[in-house]
Amino acid sequence: MYKKIVSAALCAILLFSLIPAEPFYAEAAPKETAKILNDTLNIRKGPGLSYGIEAIARKDEKYGVLEKNKEWVKLDLPGNRTGWAATWLVEIQSPSQVKTVYSNAEDVRIRKGPGTGHAIVGTFPYGKQAVLLKKEGEWTNISFNGITGWISSRYASSSIKDSKEKTDLKGPSGYITATSLNVRSAPSSASSLLGSVTKGTKVAILKSEGSWLRISYSGKTGWVSRDFVKSGSLESQIKTGKTGIVTAASLNVRNAPSPTGGLSGKVVKNEQVSILEEKNSWTKIRFNGSQTGWVSSLYIKASETGSQQDTAPKNSGAIRLISDGTNIRSSASVNSSVIARGTAGQTYTVLSLQNDWYKIKLLDGRTGYVAGWLAEDAEFGKTVNRPGESKSLKGKTIVIDPGHGGIDGGTSGSGGTLEKSLTMKTAGYLSGELQSEGANVVMTRSSDLYISLSSRVNSAQSRSADAFISLHYDSSSNKAVRGMTVYYYHSSGQKLALPVKEELIKNTRSADRGVRFGDYHVIRENSRPSILIELGYLSSITDEMTVNSSSFQKNAVHGITEGLKDYFSQQ
């Protein structure tokens, strides 16, 4: 009997030993999310700066919160990993705070920044849901399938229902003029037939490609011949009987009210034209006697306005800012007060054009003024030249080389600053300022990509660049070392380095480490005038904080720009 009891007990112990034990500590599913606030942020292996780096997060990325420890939060990272972030560098959000949007169009382009000038980083398919990060003007910042970027707000809906209802409302409208028009799967008569639309059917024009238009109608989409689609409403369009004056130096006339419409001709400043129709931000004109076509309303001054100052119709179009930190003023003068500041790529509705200033509508309903040379027409590009614009940079080809990129992160600071991201930020500011001065700017990279050193050099040599500027941030084992250094290799580079360094120090008041000879590939193998600039030390806590500020960035790029002006004025 005793042996049987012992045997039963042993069997029970063996049986229970085969059942997986519950772990001593199991982390619950995240109930909150942490939104990254810095451009880059080191995610550490433990709750403190002394711990190693587990991963690097990017601005506006969101991660589940697993645990909180005083000033640190434990995050749920991709690949079944975890890591810790400082609470003052993230925004903790409850599930109710996470907002979403839906795509109301097929394959909406996701861009790197808020504007059509930014690179495409992915697509947002019709009906799909994405996390809403923020809105800026007519652009919406989203996170979708691991991609963070910007889409036009017109293609973002608050629900699937809204998404479907708005399908036929987006884009320019039009109607079918043929008795029955074939709808095809691609912009080609050889593509498969999807169906047909009848005369008078209202459609939304989604895209233009050659002689084809992609349209949306009755919840469906497809391609049709543009010859049988009339822009606007089916009702008779009003003939204005007005005349107007062209205010742009040179203005393209198109065969349709769209920036992708074919060119019908050109009109020049002060040319008188007949205004036939006005539709949204477009005006149909008669020019050269009998020719007709469409132009941007922003650059046609109706003769009956009776004002020499207010040269654009109300709600005549939109502008896009060229640079970050653009001053928006209370009146059309550089001496007026600054009421707001805009960012590069941000768009605003134009109310009028007063001399060389755009009168715009701000998001909060106020009106303000932007200097014409600091913005560009959202559809046609920059058209207003700055009074007394520098002739020394006009037409010059400048290659900007943002150091590192992709798998090559460069150095990093204790606060999480990654060199490759900071050089990209600086390059963006510099590109905007140089372009506003009339320079032709080439970037060796425009996103987080690894570019070989020889390719960077070739970008300058193949274009016979007038100057090559490689941007970097330094590091030293001595954390007290601060300041900036400009390096050259050839004598042509030394001539460029001297004025650039002088203006950099004057504008930033950084510690001056001088102009030095440097044996770096991008300047050593470069036959064009070339320099490499170390703009500060990320190993210095003080320098790291300084170089991350927008004021430093703007002062630094202004210094480089002024230095280039000085250099070219001496040639």
UniProtKB/TrEMBL annotation:
Pfam families named in the record: Amidase_3, SH3_3
Signal peptide: 1-28
Coiled coil: none
Record's keyword terms, sorted: Cell wall biogenesis/degradation, Hydrolase, Signal
Signal is among the record's keywords: yes
Cited SUPFAM superfamilies: Zn-dependent exopeptidases
UniProt key word Membrane: no
Transmembrane feature ranges: none
SH3b domain boundaries: 31-94, 96-160, 171-233, 241-304, 314-378
PANTHER family cross-referenced by the UniProt entry: FAMILY PROTEIN, PUTATIVE-RELATED, GLYCOSYL HYDROLASE FAMILY 19 DOMAIN-CONTAINING PROTEIN HI_1415
Protein name: SH3 domain-containing protein
